[in-house]
Amino acid sequence: QVLPERLAEGKPGQGVLSSFFTNNQKCQLMLLKTLETNPYVKLLLDAMKHSGCAVNRERHFSCEDCNGNVSGGFDASTSQIVLCQNNIRNQAHMNRVVTHELIHAFDHCRAHVNWFTDVRHLACSEVRAANLSGDCSLINEIFRLHFGLKQHHQTCVRDRAILSILAVRNISKEVAQKAVDEVFESCFNDHEPFGRIPHNKTYARYAHRDFQNRDRYYSNI
């Protein structure tokens, strides 16, 4: 319902390099910068490759127009990340969207996720994406005028996960909340592949360094 071209055609939308519309060009350039420079994304790309799911920019990303205010999505049927070129506002926004969707792609790679039949599976991945993508960073919450609450990060993760579920599933808010509550503790504490909650780019760089050295540590045991 939020990716109209895919619903109508039953196939992936235009590839990243196949269109020259202004929005598409901007989307492509921002995506390229994100893939080359963002520490969250660089770690996730390495983790995907390490798990046997290497990511190809032209194959696995597509810049498209989307309905509503959706910024992006993971199309499990094609293993493709959709970037909503009409809604992604700037480079920082692109960084968060790509990170968020790559977490879904990583979950899809490492586990048998029933995206369409088990809302708890979707809820778990949405909790992880909200927790690890930087979407609930202090600066983002200040821009949303949400701050100063006890355990604020957990509250933000829960709320963002519920909103994401409601954006892609035709279910009640109560059902979404129940699914998030049931999986929250275990999925909030699952920090793979970061090993920690990366609250900012510095944390993400440290996490990437640790991931790159992970096999070296194991080999010395």
Secondary-structure blueprint of this entry?
Layout: H1 4-9, H2 22-37, H3 39-50, H4 57-60, E1 61-64, E2 72-75, E3 80-84, H5 91-110, H6 119-132, H7 138-143, H8 152-168, H9 173-188, H10 201-219
Parallel strand pairs: 1-3
Antiparallel strand pairs: 2-3
Helix pairs in contact: 2-3, 2-5, 3-5, 3-10, 5-6, 6-8, 6-9, 8-9
Family: Belongs to the peptidase M76 family.
EC number: 3.4.24.-
Enzyme class: hydrolase
Descriptive overview:
- The longest helix is centred in the middle third of the chain and has 20 residues, at 91-110.
- The chain is mainly alpha-helical and 221 residues long.
- A hairpin with a 4-residue loop joins strand 2 and strand 3 (80-84).
- It has two domains: 22-112, Zincin-like; 113-197, no CATH class.
- A three-stranded mixed beta sheet has the order 1-3-2.
- The chain is built from ten helices and three strands; from the N terminus they run H-H-H-H-E-E-E-H-H-H-H-H-H.
- Residues 16-20 have low confidence and may be disordered.
- One of its GO terms (biological process) is mitochondrial protein processing.
- This is Mitochondrial inner membrane protease ATP23.
- One of its GO terms (cellular component) is mitochondrion.
Mean pLDDT: 86
Radius of gyration equals 17 Å
Q: How are helices and strands ordered from N to C?
A: HHHHEEEHHHHHH
Segments where pLDDT lies below 50 for 5+ residues?
16-20
Number of strands: 3
**Rough outline:** globular
Structural class determined from secondary elements:
mainly alpha
